[in-house]
Amino acid sequence: MHASDNQPYVAVGDPEEECPECAWPFVSSSGKVGKVMIPPSGDIGADVMVKLLAGGLAGAVTNPNGDGFYSNARGGHIYEATSKCPDVFASDQIPVDPKTGAAFNAVGDKGTEFLLPAIWNPKTSSCWTPL
């Protein structure tokens, strides 16, 4: 999530073209360590947008510019609920759908699978994921 004129926003577009680093773990990216995974819907762009939107919504709800969760680190960088857990999708192994081979950590309506970013839990001082 970013803020412009104190208004939060999430930028979305074609991650493979515009932000390959944002498309990880579905696209290999320099500097990222770990296995490239199959996206739950089979559409890299759609699943990256879900991942980014989920992170942006978590940031907006916890509101690091107001009275929500944030953590200052050295250098004055503000970490939001999801940026405090970069590239974390599970506490151990990321579940994989046996039929499709796609990675997921949340199951929605009608069994729709999603891979969502972990959220920092200040009470346990650890990253939390739905599964």
In short:
This protein has 131 residues and is α+β, with helices and mostly antiparallel strands.
Commentary on this structure:
With 131 residues, the protein is α+β, with helices and mostly antiparallel strands. It has one domain. It has two helices and eight strands; from the N terminus they run E-E-H-H-E-E-E-E-E-E. It has helices at residues 15-18, 44-62; strands at residues 2-4, 7-9, 71-72, 78-79, 106-107, 113-114, 119-121, 126-128. It has a two-stranded antiparallel ribbon. It has a two-stranded antiparallel ribbon with strand order 3-4. Strand 3 and strand 4 (78-79) form a beta hairpin. The longest helix has 19 residues, at 44-62. The chain is globular, with a radius of gyration of 15 Å. The chain starts with a strand and ends with a strand. 25% of the residues are buried. The model has no long low-confidence stretch (mean pLDDT 81).
